[in-house]
Amino acid sequence: MPANDTYVSRILQVLGEDPGKVVMVGRNVTMTAAELAGTVRSAAAVLRRRFAGGPAPVVGILTVTNSPATLILRYAANLVGATAAHLHTTNAVDPNDRLGLDALRRIVEETGVTVLATDAENVDRARAVRDSLPSATHLAALGRLGLDVVDLTRGDRAFDESTVAVDAGADAVVTYTSGTTGRPKGIVLSFRTRRGFITGGLQQADRATYLATLPMSHSSGQAADDTLASGGVVVLHDGFDAGAVLDAVAEHRVTRLLVSPSQLYLLLDHPAIDRADLSSVRVLSYTGAPASPERLALAAKRFGPVLLQVYGTSEAAAISMLTPVEHGDPALLGTAGRPVFAEVRVRDETDGRDLPTGGVGEIQVRTSYGMTRYVADPELTARTLRDGWFHTGDLGFLDANGYLTICGRRGEVIKTNGIKIYPAVVERALMTHPGVAQAAVFAVVDGDRVEHLHAAVVPRDGHDLTGDELREHVATRLSGKQAPARFHLRAALPLTGIGKPDKARLAAEASG
User: Fold this and answer.
1) How many CB atoms are closer than 10 A to CB 225?
2) Residue 186: CB partners within 8 Å, gap ≥ 6?
3) Do 91 and 497 contact (CB within 8 A), yes or no?
């Protein structure tokens, strides 16, 4: 690639085509294309001047996640070939969830952050982290926050990025996600990969208006990149509120949304849904966890042919998709669609052999859009990336037509009643009950180390459910051996940082 043919330089090129257009709305801020491009270039110029002659800095971004600053600081860092590391949260669903100081300090150290870019809401936390570190770390912000904070708005707004050579294989972005052990994992993506993500936006004829409610530090940030590359508009919300989303869609004529399945259900169940103006929506994507086929059928009927399911991971990006047209086929709603942008194989967990059609095994992926490595964890990298294939840890199978079905995580398979039980299969059966809004199936281990099948269920409004009723429903849909031994009726399910039911917490509470 040319010296600076990065995804940021391409976005700036598109912004320059219509400088007066409003391209970002959020947090009481409205930015035109010229204002966004000028602020990015100003911050890049200051970073380049301050660190000229040395290695490119690693810029840690500690800002309100869904704010213009998060995007601007990432773009500025990447424009000068620096690595941008998102520090505020490991949560891919809730932008208001934030890391504690100890976790922040560890991440800053292991990523080698040299510039801690922050904002007024987080500057005190940034100072606390800086003061606890043995090595010098500079503070910076988009404005004046004190004599110890470099003002990135005082640079050359006409900064020429073509003077900066950027290695396509170098580290562009580090995003931390919640690990199953509780220790966050830092996922490294290269400039080449980030450049590949916006290909769709550059080729898109229609200009999208994207409503961002998921954290901009994760996949929602990639959607924002793609939107700006299409010449579109990004509308920033501090989090997900179904009523606020419905209002924003009508006010801003939103064409594109990205939500978790549980958020899709909240939209579907909102009392204002039948009078909401959703006529502008062209794509309503959902991702993060398997969704209920029955709920998807209702959503497809209510929202029209706009639903797009994306199965993917932070490490491998999009793996498979179920298109809006395919949502019209009830037989496909239990699948995760067909592979896109990636090769997918399903292998036996024990001996590693390729499984035939219908065989349940680990889903493995080979893609050009995957991570380079995990930060400071070569052992995990070696276990996960083998011979060019990413081992997802997800279990599933491919059917004769190439559609992928997810059965759950490798560590979630429950052995009880003499058989292997895949929680996702039982959850899908529970969700066919008209009184069930959400369900999570998990194991509780007794004192004899015997696993017992439990289910946490959120009833839909107006439905009184009993364990016997639900047990009979599962037994009828699947078999008696796959019916949970105990049901826990709850007002809501606890969620992990990636928006999936927190089964470890559910199991701990059930055991207690």
Assistant:
1) 25
2) 85, 107, 110, 111, 174, 175, 176, 374, 375, 376, 377
3) yes
Q: Which among 409, 438, 457 is the end of a domain?
A: 409
Q: Quick one: 124 and 191 in the same domain?
A: yes
Longest dimension (CA), the chain: 71
Return the pLDDT at 292.
Answer: 87
Q: What's the pTM?
A: 0.88
Query: Pick from 397, 512, 485, 495: which is nearest to 438 by CA?
Result: 495
Task: Give the per-residue pLDDT at 34.
Answer: 98
What domain range is 475 assigned to? 413-511
Any domain includes 421: yes
**DSSP string for 93-115:** S-TT----HHHHHHHHHHHT-SE
Total domains in the fold of the chain: 3
Confirm whether 403 is domain-assigned: yes
* 401 and 459 belong to one structural domain: no
Q: Give the separation between CA 47 and CA 26, rounded to whole angstroms.
A: 25
DSSP assignment of 440-468, as one string? EEEEEE-TT--EEEEEEEEEPTT----HH
The last residue of one of the domains, among 138, 160, 195, is 195
Asked if residue 424 and residue 391 are part of one domain, the reply reads no
Q: Is the pLDDT of residue 152 over 70?
A: yes
Between the CA of residue 263 and those of 116, 123, 438, what are the distances in Å? Answer: 33, 31, 11
pLDDT of residue 179: 59
Question: Do 379 and 446 belong to one domain?
Answer: no
- Please name the residue that has the structure tokens 């213009």: 68
Task: Specify the pLDDT at position 496.
Answer: 82
